[in-house]
Amino acid sequence: MRDITEFIEQFRETGSYRTPAERLGKPRKNGLWTSLAYNFRGLGGSMLRATWLSHQGKFDNQRWAECGLHLLWETERLGTEVIIEGFENLKQAGPCVVVSNHMSLYETFAFPPLMRAFTDVAIVLKESLLRVPLLGQTFSTLKTIALGRSDPRADLKAVLEQGERYIREDKASVLLYPQGTRQPYFDCRKFNTLGVKLAQNAGVPIVPVAGQTSFLGVGKYTKDFGPVDTSIPVRFACGPAIYVTRANAKEAQAQCVDFIASKLEEWGKVEVRR
User: Fold this and answer.
1) Distance of alpha carbon 99 from its chain centroid, rounded?
2) Which one, of 27, 49, 184, lies nearest residue 105 by Cα?
3) Tens digit of pLDDT for each residue in 165-192?
4) What is the C-alpha to C-alpha distance for residues 84 and 225, in angstroms, rounded to an integer?
5) Is 173 helix (H, G, I), strand (E, B) or coil?
6) Among candidates 274, 241, 235, which has minimal Cα distance to 256?
7) CA-CA distance, 14 to 250, in Å (whole number)?
8) Among 119, 141, 226, 244, which lies 20 to 30 A Cα-Cα from 47?
9) By the 8 A CB rule, do 129 and 158 touch?
């Protein structure tokens, strides 16, 4: 087990990370066995450990970091680079609203521990995730805002009211994925304005994050456990904090979308639909 505390301290100081050469495993060939190994050791191992700890009442922020970052270490073990940049932007932002594209379960589990280096985190997620065996029990112990997805008005109310409460009372940042369901591409037109509305209501900045997590694909029979493509680096890039007012709300939304789309186009591994 790598020293999680040391990693978090260094990441908090620099806001960036790139897999050191000595940590990069021998590249594995794509295929059934590589995918099964990663889903079992990486994703499955993290979920089982998190569930066991939450059942014991021991799933605190340190344990969350251990379980989430375990995915990164297992990714590197397969010979795939992990590259993270720009998270120093969260240092100045304070409690904020973070919006990101959504490709796979990978970022759901690995991204929040990275944010935890700078801020407490509340996650907006589908209510159905809380009913998933293993995963649901884990998330139920965290700060969450669950959305039913059947009543947009009720979902908007939940995000605005609960999100503002987490920001004001707990000094936590709120993480949400405005495109809704996980997709292997990024459709700029379907990136909704929930994040901008919450930031405006709460009087805090909004921070866009681009994520390339197609290393772990969407499964055929279950979305959570899919095929692994070891040739695609895992990347996260955090953009600058954008302060939202009623006058600049549309511009702030456009800036968030453009940052994510531009990063994905720069990396060249994900289709962007403008």
Assistant:
1) 9
2) 184
3) 999 999 999 999 998 778 888 999 999 9
4) 23
5) strand
6) 241
7) 31
8) 119
9) no
Instruction: Determine the Cα–Cα distance for residues 15 and 89; give it in Å rounded to an integer.
Output: 8
Structure tokens at 174: 């709120």
* pTM for this model (two decimals): 0.90
Q: Provide φ and ψ at 122, rounded to 5°.
A: -120, 135
Inter-CA distances, 101 with 71, 98, 169, 176, 265, Å? 19, 10, 27, 9, 13
Fold of 4-273: Glycerol-3-phosphate (1)-acyltransferase (3.40.1130)
Q: Are 35 and 226 in contact (CB under 8 A)?
A: yes
Using pLDDT thresholds of 50, 70 and 90, give the confidence band for residue 219: low
- Give the C-alpha distances (Å, rounded to integers) separating 248 from 151, 236, 240, 244, 251: 27, 26, 16, 6, 5
Task: Write the DSSP symbol of residue 43.
Answer: I
Non-local CB neighbours of 232 within 8 Å, separated by 6+ positions: 80, 212, 214, 215, 269
* Closest among 17, 107, 91 to 241, alpha carbons compared: 91
104-139 per-position pLDDT tens digit: 878 887 888 888 889 889 988 877 767 766 666 677
Give alpha helix (H) positions in 95-134: 105-115
From the list 204, 217, 144, 153, the residue with the least C-alpha distance to 175 is 144
Nearest-angstrom CA–CA distance, 102 and 99: 10
Tell me, what's the pLDDT at 223? 62
Look up residue 39 and give its two tokens: 């889903």
Place of tokens 């050791």: 41
Q: Are strands 144-147 and 120-126 parallel, antiparallel or unpaired?
A: parallel
Residue 68 has pLDDT above 90, yes or no: no
| For the chain, domain boundaries | 4-273
